C-alpha cells in the first residue's frame, strides 16, 4: 500500500525510560542492529523485561528511540501508520460491536466507503475462518476466535507489516497450536512481513524463519538463529522431530544465561 515494501531496519537503536525521583533512567534497549526482509517471518525471544515490547512499540511508532534509527522501506519511522498492523495479547475488541463491526471499525476512520468496508470485512473474516460468526459479539466468541477477529481487523488495512506482541499467550495449548497454523497459512497467502514476540521457544521455532534472541536488559541482539525445517508441511508432528528439538535446545541455551541474569536484575531492583 505504501509503494514497494522493502523491509525493516534497526540501526543502533536505544531506548531509555526516565525513572521518577531518581534523576536517572532505565535503559530498556541498547545498540539494536537488525534487518528484517520484506515478507519475512521473524520471531523475537528474550527474558522478561529485556525490551521486546519496547522494540515493537518503536517500530509501531508508539514510542520514539533515544538513539539510532528505525527505517521502514528505507524511510525513518515517525509515528504510527497503516503500513503496520499491531496485534496484542489482549484482544482490544470493542464489546458493543460484532466481529464484522470490529473489523470494519478501523476502516471507517480511514474513509473506506461502506460497501468496500463490508467487502473487506467479509474477505478477512473468511481468511481467519470466522465468516459464520460475523454477527456475534466478542462475549459470544471464544478467546481464540476473539484473537482471530483481532488479526482480521489488523489485516483489513492491508498493512505491509504485522507486529504481534505475544498474541497467543492467553490461549490454551490446543487453540494456540491451531492459531499458529492459521497464522502461517495467512502469512504464506498474504506475503506480509511478520515480527512476532513470544516467550515460548516452541512457538518461536515453529513459526519463525529466523529467531532473534535478545539479551537481558538492556536488550541487545545476542544471536539470530535461522530456522530451516524443510519438512514442516509434510511431517504430521514436526514438533516431535529431532531437528525441531535441536533448534529448541540451541535457543534454550542462548536464553538460559540471559534469563538468569534478568532474575538477578529483578532481585537487585527489589533490594534497591
Ligand atoms: N513507559 C515506560 N516507562 C518506564 N519504564 C518502562 C516503560 N515501558 C517499559 N519500561 C521498562 O522497560 C523494560 C522493558 O520493558 P518491555 O515491556 O519492553 O520488556 P519485555 O521484554 O516486553 O517484557 P515481558 O517479556 O515481561 O513482556 C522493563 O524494565 C520495563 O519496566
Q: What attributes characterize this protein structure?
A:
single chain; 272 residues; alpha/beta; Rossmann fold; 2 domains; 6-stranded mixed beta sheet; 4-stranded antiparallel beta sheet; 10 strands; globular; binds adenosine-5'-triphosphate
Question: Which helices and strands occur, and which strands form pairs?
Answer:
Layout: E1 8-18, E2 25-36, E3 41-45, H1 52-60, E4 67-72, E5 75-76, E6 84-87, H2 99-109, H3 114-127, H4 143-156, E7 161-165, H5 173-190, E8 193-197, H6 201-207, E9 210-214, E10 221-226, H7 242-271
Parallel strand pairs: 3-8, 3-9, 6-7, 7-8
Antiparallel strand pairs: 1-2, 1-4, 4-5, 9-10
The chain binds adenosine-5'-triphosphate.
Residues 17, 26, 28, 46, 48-54, 217 line the site of adenosine-5'-triphosphate.
The CATH topology label of the largest domain is Rossmann fold
Q: How many angstroms separate the termini?
A: 49 Å
Shape: globular
Radius of gyration: 19 Å
Ligands, ions, cofactors: adenosine-5'-triphosphate
> Approximately how much helix is present in the residues?
25-40%
Strand order of the largest sheet: 6-7-8-3-9-10
Largest sheet data: 6 strands, mixed
Which series of helices and strands comes N to C? EEEHEEEHHHEHEHEEH
Number of helix segments? Answer: 7
Number of individual domains = 2
> Under the CATH scheme, which architecture of the largest domain would be assigned?
3-Layer(aba) Sandwich
How much of the sequence lies in strands comes to: 15-25%
The pLDDT mean sits at: 90
Poorly predicted sequence stretches spanning 5 or more consecutive residues: none
Number of strands: 10
Q: CATH class of the largest domain, please?
A: Alpha Beta
What structural class results from the helix and strand content?
Answer: alpha/beta
Give me the CATH superfamily of the largest domain: P-loop containing nucleotide triphosphate hydrolases
Amino acid at each position: 500500500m505504501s509503494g514497494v515494501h522493502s523491509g525493516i531496519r534497526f540501526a543502533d537503536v536505544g531506548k531509555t525510560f526516565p525513572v521518577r525521583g531518581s534523576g536517572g533512567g532505565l535503559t530498556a534497549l541498547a545498540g539494536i542492529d537488525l534487518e528484517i526482509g520484506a515478507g519475512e517471518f521473524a520471531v523475537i525471544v528474550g527474558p522478561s523485561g529485556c525490551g521486546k515490547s519496547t522494540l515493537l512499540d518503536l517500530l509501531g511508532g508508539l514510542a520514539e528511540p533515544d538513539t539510532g534509527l528505525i527505517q521502514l522501506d528505507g524511510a525513518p519511522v515517525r509515528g504510527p501508520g497503516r503500513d503496520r498492523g499491531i496485534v496484542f495479547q489482549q484482544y482490544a475488541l470493542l464489546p458493543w460491536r460484532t466481529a464484522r463491526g470490529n473489523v470494519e471499525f478501523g476502516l471507517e476512520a480511514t474513509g473506506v466507503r461502506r460497501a468496500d468496508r463490508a467487502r473487506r470485512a467479509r474477505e478477512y473474516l473468511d481468511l481467519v475462518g470466522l465468516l459464520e460468526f460475523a454477527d456475534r459479539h466478542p462475549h459470544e466468541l471464544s478467546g481464540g476466535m476473539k484473537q482471530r477477529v483481532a488479526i482480521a481487523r489488523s489485516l483489513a488495512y492491508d498493512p505491509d507489516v504485522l507486529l504481534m506482541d505475544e498474541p497467543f499467550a492467553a490461549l490454551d495449548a490446543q487453540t494456540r497450536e491451531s492459531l499458529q497454523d492459521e497464522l502461517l497459512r495467512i502469512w504464506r497467502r498474504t506475503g506480509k512481513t511478520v515480527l512476532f514476540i513470544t516467550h515460548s521457544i516452541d512457538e518461536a521455532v515453529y513459526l519463525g524463519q529466523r529467531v532473534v534472541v535478545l539479551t537481558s536488559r538492556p536488550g541487545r541482539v545476542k544471536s539470530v538463529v535461522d530456522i530451516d525445517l524443510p519438512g514442516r508441511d509434510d511431517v504430521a508432528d514436526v514438533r516431535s522431530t529431532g531437528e525441531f528439538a535441536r533448534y529448541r535446545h540451541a535457543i534454550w541455551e542462548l536464553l538460559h544465561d540471559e534469563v538468569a541474569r534478568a532474575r538477578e536484575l529483578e532481585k537487585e531492583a527489589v533490594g534497591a
